C-alpha cells in the first residue's frame, strides 16, 4: 500500500517539474528574443545616426564651398566672385533662381518679396540634371567631393544663394549693403537621408 502511494506521488512530482521546466524555457526564450530586438533596434538607431552625420557634414561642406564661391574661388578660371557686389544685386534674377549647371549665374536666386515665402523653398535640390537651379559642390571652386559609394554620401551636396539687404546703424538708409543667405543640402548614404543648413554671409571688404 505504501509503495503505491510513493509511486503515485513521484509521478505527480515529475509532471509538475515538466510544466515548470517548460514555463522557464518559454521565459528564457522571450528574454532572448527581447534582447535580440533591443540589439537590432540599437544597431538601426546607430546606423541612422551615422547616416545623418554624413549628411550633416556634407551640408556643412557645401556651405563652405558657397562661401568660397562668394569670396573668391581658389580656381581663378572658375571664379565668379565679381558677381557678388556689396552695393547691388544686379547679378541676381528678378524672380526665381537661375538654372543650368553650365551657366555662370546658376544657383543665384531672387530676393523674396516682403510677406512671401523665401525662394529657396521652391528649389528642387534633388534635381542633379544639367538644368538644375542649384549648384553642385565644387562647380565654382574646383574642389571635389567624393560621393556615391560605400559609406560616402549618395550624391554631392548642393546650394543656392539669395541676396539680402541691410544698412548699418548710422549709415545712410539709401545706400544699404548686400549680404547673402546660403541654403545647402547634404545627403547621407541613402538619398532619403537629407540635412538642410543655412547661413548668412557678408563678403569681406577689400
TrEMBL record:
UniProt domain Type 4 fimbrial biogenesis protein PilX N-terminal: residue ranges: 15-63
Membrane-spanning ranges: 18-40
Domain PilX/PilW C-terminal, residue spans: 107-203
Keyword DNA damage: no
Record bears the keyword Membrane: yes
Keywords, ordered alphabetically: Membrane, Transmembrane, Transmembrane helix
Origin superkingdom: Bacteria
Protein name, per record: Pilus assembly protein
Organism this protein belongs to: Noviherbaspirillum saxi
Amino acid at each position: 500500500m505504501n509503495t503505491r502511494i510513493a509511486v503515485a506521488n513521484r509521478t505527480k512530482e515529475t509532471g509538475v517539474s515538466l510544466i515548470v521546466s517548460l514555463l522557464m524555457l518559454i521565459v528564457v526564450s522571450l528574454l532572448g528574443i527581447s534582447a535580440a530586438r533591443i540589439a537590432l533596434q540599437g544597431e538601426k538607431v546607430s546606423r541612422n545616426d551615422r547616416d545623418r552625420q554624413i549628411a550633416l557634414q556634407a551640408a556643412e561642406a557645401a556651405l563652405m564651398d558657397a562661401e568660397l564661391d562668394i569670396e573668391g574661388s581658389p580656381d581663378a578660371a572658375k571664379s565668379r566672385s565679381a558677381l557678388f557686389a556689396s552695393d547691388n544685386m544686379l547679378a541676381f534674377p528678378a524672380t526665381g533662381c537661375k538654372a543650368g549647371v553650365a551657366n555662370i549665374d546658376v544657383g543665384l536666386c531672387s530676393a523674396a518679396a516682403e510677406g512671401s515665402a523665401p525662394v529657396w523653398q521652391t528649389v528642387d535640390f534633388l534635381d542633379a540634371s544639367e538644368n538644375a537651379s542649384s549648384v553642385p559642390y565644387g562647380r565654382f571652386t574646383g574642389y571635389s567631393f567624393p560621393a556615391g559609394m560605400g559609406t560616402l554620401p549618395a550624391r554631392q551636396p548642393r546650394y543656392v544663394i539669395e541676396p539680402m539687404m541691410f544698412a548699418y546703424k548710422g549709415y545712410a538708409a539709401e545706400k544699404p549693403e548686400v549680404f547673402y543667405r546660403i541654403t545647402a543640402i547634404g545627403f547621407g548614404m541613402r538619398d532619403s537621408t537629407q540635412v538642410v543648413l543655412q547661413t548668412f554671409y557678408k563678403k569681406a571688404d577689400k
